[in-house]
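Retry 2 of 3 after timeout on previous attempt. Resubmitting structure tokens to design endpoint.
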């Protein structure tokens, strides 16, 4: 059998077809979320997401164009075709999934807490922080923002544009805790272990996925099969072990 006319029509409209024609995949991400998307000393964007993107691009035989995009504009950027895909440590949520399609999860994370050292021993879980006497810092428009408002509804919440501004609030004594995805907190906490304590039991369940525009089964099929392949053939583990030290 041959592909039907409607299948061919779909393929012509697929982002995957655009990428192959262009010879480049344009990836929206926001640098600032260690170890997924961050800047090295030379200012290049590197990280787990970048290596996954590069390995996928290699399988497509195309180059990668990393497009640093502010978090609050990252879904709009995808929807207006400023990029082909978001690979930026994005949690798959029902609300986001109404606007974009998500690939299969490529990692599971959850929210954890960077606590001021002053509260060590007094606060041992997110439940203890759910009190009007505490101030929590986190990043605007992230699942950390949503989880804080949901599970720490009694606490005062201060929202910041970047991860580092939020976490600095605790170091500077302006907040009692910073709530964020565990991988970021694990690294930031170990870099600042004199000032911060990491409460590292995650209190949410968050699969991270890549986001693409809706209505593109060909692109989705390629990515999900690629992810399944690299999870089994050692490529994924190699990239994982480079960025996540246990
Ligand atoms: N996983 C969280 C979310 O989806 C935070 C992701 C932030 N990513 C970034 N590259 N800054 O809301």
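Retry 2 succeeded. Sequence:
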């Amino acid at each position: 059998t041959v592909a039907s006319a409607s299948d061919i029509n779909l393929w012509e409209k697929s982002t995957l077809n655009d990428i192959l024609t262009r010879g480049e995949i344009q990836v929206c991400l926001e640098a600032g979320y260690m170890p997924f998307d961050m800047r090295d000393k030379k200012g290049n964007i590197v990280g787990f997401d970048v290596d996954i993107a590069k390995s996928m691009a290699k399988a497509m035989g195309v180059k990668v164009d990393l497009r640093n995009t502010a978090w609050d504009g990252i879904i709009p950027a995808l929807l207006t075709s400023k990029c082909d895909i978001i690979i930026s440590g994005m949690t798959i949520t029902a609300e986001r999934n109404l606007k974009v399609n998500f690939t299969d999860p490529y990692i599971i994370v959850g929210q954890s807490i960077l606590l001021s050292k002053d509260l060590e021993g007094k606060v041992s879980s997110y439940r203890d922080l759910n009190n009007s006497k505490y101030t929590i810092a986190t990043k605007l428009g992230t699942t950390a923002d949503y989880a804080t408002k949901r599970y720490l509804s009694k606490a005062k919440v201060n929202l910041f544009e970047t991860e580092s501004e939020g976490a600095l609030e605790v170091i500077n004594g302006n907040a009692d805790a910073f709530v964020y995805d565990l991988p970021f907190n694990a690294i930031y906490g170990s870099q600042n272990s004199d000032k911060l304590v990491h409460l590292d039991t995650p209190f949410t369940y968050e699969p991270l996925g890549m986001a693409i525009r809706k209505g593109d089964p060909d692109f989705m099929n390629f990515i999900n099969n690629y992810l399944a392949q690299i999870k089994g053939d050692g490529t994924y583990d190699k990239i994982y072990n480079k960025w996540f030290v246990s």
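Attempt log closed. The first helix runs from residue 5 to 13.
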